Predict the 3D structure of the following.
Amino acid sequence: MNDSGSDNKNPNPPEGKNSPRLIKEGIRIVFRLSRAYRTSLIYEPNNYIYLRQVNLLHSQIKSALKSYGKAFLTLKQNSMEFNSRKLKFSFSDYRIFKFIQDEFKKKEIGELSFLPGLKKEELNKFIILLAKKGYDPKDPYKDFISEIKKKNIENIIVEKIPSYEKSKKKNRDTKNLFFLGMTHLKEMFQQTGKLQDHVSLLTTKRLMQSIFNHIADNESFMLGLTNIKNFDEYTLNHSVNVCVLSISLGKKLGLDRNELVDLGLAAFFHDFGKLDIPKDILVKPSKLDKKERETIEKHTFFGAVRLMDLKQGTSLPIEALSVALEHHESDGKVGYPILIRKRAIDLFSKIVKIVDVYDAMTTSRPYRKKNFSKEEALSYILEKGSKEFDPIILKVFVDMIGICPIGSLVLLNTGEVGIVFEKHVDPQHIMRPKVKLISDENGNKRDGDIVDLTEKDENNKYKRNIVKTLDESDYDIRTADYFVAEAE
């Protein structure tokens, strides 16, 4: 690494701000920060071994500053970003991230910025303060910042983890955006074929960009909102759910921002053809007969035709037409429409199909005697496997939803009941999400805290464990209401 110490800013290097190199530099800085911290716990501040680790960390930071003009680490829920780019830690490196995450949380550090004028002496002082114990437990951040000022550390900026109120505002903004999606789609349904379509589509694209931003910054809560199931506005609600879940799945498949916006648009309009299906068939409270089934299956063709008309003179991606036509199809022989000529199905269609099935199965419908739980829907999808779904997309989707999907009602070993609010990214903690407590051990309902199931007691044993998942319909509980309430 070049340790010339140059302070020339170059915020747009040839590789681009989202390059693999930037991510690797961020991971190296976290690694070096961890090594310097741990070494400071063993050796004196003037020890050669410790100072060598500080020098390596300083060199890594200066290299990043030279390349990008900035170097800052941001703690985001259960992940960490470097220069606003999420860092992806391997399974073996996850313990390093978890260690730094825990130390940041202890001192309520939300963001750590290194300025171009950073000197080794300043970095040395900062590491020692970071490793210091005994900060005021009531306000560790204030105590920590006070120590930084006393040591005249000027080129390292520490910002606090967003307050509870800021977190509430972020959730409220996410909730408002979710319902705005339903309102906008309803307007599109009502005005389709009119001159305003072009203007509305530009609004739709901006809406997709906003949804992407909220998924990037507040993914767990956004996914939690997809537990909202409104029978009266099923097509609207379902379309927004499919849009959110598709973008999240596409993100985990490695699609870039522009592709995810296009995927969101395609998912948003995947059921556009239901405009041409009689309402008495859409809301029929009993099983459809053969003729009615044939009618409703035509919505794929109707949707493609409507979107083809809408595309004239607009920036609607061509994939939206494919998704509208193909989201119930597997290989031209399974699902519908059954086409004479076999052809490759679009990637976006494969993504939307699996999400569409999952959301439809986990939504109560008037013609269905039994409601499917999230676990039952996943089991069904896994049972169908590669006969119905792309095997790679299927694997990533199952990993995304997880054993305890966000919004699941769970019974804890303490006798308390809670709702899964946020998953851990560490595979070792797949059964230890963050849970919103909604009843005590005696079954009394309460508006409890959100607890982290990785928390341990003084004997190093987990405070709470999940015993089993529960069917919310058996308990007259709608988990979606708690996500909405959390934003109010």
Notes: Residues 1-17 have pLDDT under 50 and may be disordered. The radius of gyration is 25 Å.
